[in-house]
Design goal:
Length: 510
């Protein structure tokens, strides 16, 4: 019996109606945050094991210098030893026991629950970081010292960008010289201008309590912050090569006492504070980040800590920091692979372009490193938005362009889903035996929303139309969009009574 002709499923309506549907925002985000990474593994399984064993050997035989007395005392109680050089050493068994008992995942809360997400496994999220002392001015396009107003503006800009899953300060308010007032006003800016999860730095351990008291007030009362902590503490407890830093240790202990998750960052420099060889640097920086894991877990077993091994590169010709390029992309992807090998919540760094302008160099360097880190399966990719000038500068326009770039990166990490429906055999039958094009097929419209990301700032016009529209480049388009966002999005996420009380107690400068 012959097969009956199939009814073609076509989208109805006029051409204008079809164009209107296509111009609407997609109902399904084709590039959502949190895809499963791990597709890119720069290290073989054997290389991972070699690096891992070398790191354990470093901790057991070379040990850590300059250990604060409280850390040394507690570590010795937990099985550490002191070698002949007076360095604190951790045996392989001790380190592996700590890895086994360490936190494997935790929820990083937003003050608004829609922004909360789980850190761990193979889910990938991009966010910010940095301590730029210069901002690329929107008007002059020249770098100038960063201010507290800049930080507030960057925070509320990031509040509108869907691919920035959390906000950590991207610049230092150089107009606030007092270190406590700097730390407090930085945290205040985060509270006022976004409800996303945030991260902040503490210069000294003594600064933690008053700032967490502010978080408690924002959350509704004493102890409320610790119930759903929406801010993580950024510390760098390791001074490469292989020494502890006392101030960061104090901050870590104070953060643990108040229930604030810790992002422990190792930022060794290739050929300067770490070996120049790729594998040697990975071994050294991994050992140092393990030393930070030991430090946290001997005081609070299983405490939420992001294992942030950020191997950095310097240009060995000049000694200048290199935030972009193939080597730093491989190193951070390899760092993620090592952390994931231990099933630890991982953090790496990307998109730290050396470019000063919003130009082709910026795009190339950011795309290389963000894609490598995202595909590696790093849980939290820091510095991914706005950072310029080898981390010395930050740009409003780059924030927008990076947010758009990250949609492309998320789309690539998401990969391809294969099913009988999406293989589209019946649709092909309809088209091939019918009108000969797929434009009007229902499946085409569905795929358009589900599988394709359409940029807002990226230009896809043909040359004549582009010229007639003003021949703008990406820098100009993003500059215009930043101004519009900052003009209309002026949130204040603080209760008026809480804000008034904070202002009566502290010197809030904004």
């Amino acid at each position: 019996m012959s097969e009956q002709p199939r009814t073609r499923r076509r989208g109805g309506g006029s051409r204008a109606a079809m164009q209107a549907r296509r111009s609407k925002p997609p109902e399904i985000n084709p590039a959502p945050a949190g895809p499963r990474g791990g597709q890119y593994r720069p290290l073989t399984a054997g290389q991972v094991e070699q690096i891992y064993h070398t790191s354990l050997r470093m901790l057991a035989e070379l040990g850590m210098g300059d250990s604060p007395p409280a850390l040394t005392e507690r570590a010795l109680e937990c099985g550490a030893t002191i070698n002949e050089l007076g360095r604190l050493c951790f045996s392989r068994d001790m380190v592996e026991d700590i890895i086994d008992g360490a936190c494997k995942s935790f929820v990083f809360y937003g003050r608004d629950d829609q922004y909360s997400f789980e850190v761990g496994g193979d889910r990938v999220y991009f966010g910010t970081g940095g301590a730029a002392v210069q901002t690329l001015d929107l008007d002059s396009h020249i770098y100038r010292p960063s201010t507290l107003r800049d930080l507030a503006d960057f925070t509320r800009l990031a509040d509108t960008l869907p691919n920035i899953s959390w906000f950590t300060r991207c610049c230092v308010a150089t107009d606030v010289p007092d270190i406590f007032e700097l730390d407090f006003n930085t945290a205040y800016c985060l509270m006022r201008n976004t409800q996303k999860p945030v991260g902040t730095n503490f210069t000294l351990g003594a600064h933690v309590d008053p700032i967490v008291d502010m978080f408690d007030a924002v959350a509704g009362g004493p102890g409320k912050f610790a119930q759903k902590p929406f801010c993580k503490s950024h510390i760098s407890p390791i001074i490469s090569p292989m020494r502890y830093g006392e101030d960061a240790f104090d901050v870590a202990i104070a953060s643990i006492r108040r229930g604030m998750p810790i992002n422990s960052i190792t930022a060794a420099m290739s050929g300067a504070t770490s070996p120049a060889t790729i594998d040697g640097m990975l071994a050294a920086s991994f050992a140092e980040t393990l030393a930070a894991l030991v430090m946290v877990n001997i005081f609070a077993p299983g405490y939420p800590m992001i294992f942030s091994n950020w191997p950095f590169v310097i240009d060995l010709r000049t000694g200048a920091f290199c935030g972009g390029g193939g080597e730093i992309s491989i190193l951070n992807a390899g760092a993620a692979q090592l952390a994931n090998h231990c099933n630890l919540p991982s953090g790496v760094a990307s998109s730290m372009s050396d470019a000063k302008a919003v130009d082709a160099q910026m795009g190339m360097e950011k795309a290389l490193s963000s894609l490598a880190c995202g595909l590696s399966g790093a849980n939290m990719v820091y510095e991914s938005s706005g950072m310029m000038a080898s981390l010395l500068g930050v740009s409003f326009e780059a924030f927008l362009l990076d947010n758009e770039m990250l949609s492309h990166v998320y789309r690539m990490i998401r990969g391809v889903e294969v099913s009988e429906e999406t293989l589209a055999f019946e649709t092909m039958r309809n088209v091939i035996t019918g009108e000969g094009h797929f434009i009007g097929e229902t499946q085409t419209m569905q795929a358009m929303e589900r599988d394709y990301y359409y940029p807002k700032l990226g230009d896809r016009l043909e040359p004549t139309t582009w010229a007639e529209a003003g021949a703008q480049d990406a820098w100009q388009r993003s500059n215009h969009e930043v101004r519009e966002i900052l003009a209309r999005h002026q949130p204040n996420y603080l209760d008026a009574a809480v804000d008034a009380k904070l202002r009566s107690q502290f010197n809030i400068k904004i």
